[in-house]
Amino acid sequence: MTPVAECLIAFVFGSIVGLLVQRSRFCNTAALRDAIMFKTYRNTKALLVAMMILTVAFTGFMSVGAGHPLDFDVGFNTFIGLFLFGIGMVLAGACTVSTWVKAAEGNIGAVWALLFTFIGMFLFSLIWSWNYWPPAPASMTGEPNLPALQLGAANALTLQEKLGIPAIFFGLAQTLVLFMIYRALRRKERAQQTKHEAEATIHKAKAMTTQEGAGTAAHAASE
Predict the structure, then answer these.
(1) When you count CB atoms within 10 A of the terminal residue's CB, does the N or C end of the chain come out lower?
(2) Whole-number Å distance between alpha carbons of 2 and 134
(3) In a 10 Å sphere around its CB, with 0-12 CB exposed, 13-18 middle and 19+ buried, how is residue 76 labelled?
(4) Is the preceding omega at residue 135 within 30 degrees of 0, hence cis?
(5) What is the pLDDT along the chain (223 residues), one digit of tens a residue?
(6) 150 bridge partner residues
(7) Residue 170: beta bridge partners?
(8) Are 58 and 171 in contact (CB under 8 A)?
(9) In this structure, which long-range contacts are made by residues 133-137, counting pairs with CB atoms below 8 Å and at least 24 apart in sequence?
(10) Which residues contact 63 (CB under 8 A, 6 or more apart)?
(11) Secondary structure (DSSP) of the chain
């Protein structure tokens, strides 16, 4: 495939994904924020479905030798980075994907968030090149290194290579866990809906009782 064809395919695919994200208002931040703060799970369920589809697809490609996942070590630096990135998403009010969508819609705050994302990555690249944190990358060998606060690297492909079990089995196991979480959210939603319907019925009954009492009192007063 020529570079021009790859660019065209990437453009078409990116445009379709961008349109779907914009129309659905999907956001990774909202998937967690809404579930924790507002007890609504629309974005959370969408995120789980996307993760299930991607997990099966990626591990399926790995099983036939077509997948090429990134290998990166997990360590103390990873948790620090994820924590800082999470704070940034909360302050920006959106994840990176929805920030791009909001910026394209003319949201000035999202434009500033993207601008300083690029500035932050550039400054970090300079600092990393000048004086990187000692445990990384010299100790990022893929193997656990507790003195350097590195836990090593492992994904479905490495497990397939070390254990001889096709990656799709690990993907299906993870998908099952995600599906169980999805089912739990669905049950919680149904319980909430039943509770709201019961409360609405009680409120309606009280309102009708109040109206009937007011009507009886008015009739008695007129007599």
Answers:
(1) C
(2) 41
(3) middle
(4) no
(5) 788 888 899 899 888 888 888 888 888 888 888 888 888 888 899 889 989 998 998 888 888 877 677 777 788 878 888 888 888 887 777 788 888 888 888 888 888 888 888 888 888 777 765 555 555 567 777 788 887 778 888 788 888 888 888 889 999 999 999 999 999 999 998 888 888 888 888 888 777 777 666 556 555 555 5
(6) 75, 145
(7) none
(8) yes
(9) 133/77, 135/75, 135/76, 135/77, 136/73, 136/75, 136/77
(10) 160, 166, 167, 168
(11) --HHHHHHHHHHHHHHHHHHHHHHT--HHHHHHIIIII---HHHHHHHHHHHHHHHHHHHHHHTT---PPP---BHHHHHHHHHHHHHHHHHTS-HHHHHHHHHTT-HHHHHHHHHHHHHHHHHHHHHHHH--TTTTTT-SSS-BGGGTB-----HHHHHHHH---HHHHHHHHHHHHHHHHHHHHHHHHHHHHHHHHHHHHHHHHHHHHHHHHHHHHHHHH-
Sequence-distant (≥ 6) Cβ neighbours of residue 9 within 8 angstroms: 1
Cα 82 from Cα 17, distance rounded (Å): 24
Q: In whole angstroms, give the CA distance from residue 161 to residue 26.
A: 35
Q: Structure tokens of 168?
A: 């799709």
Predicted TM-score (pTM) of this structure: 0.72
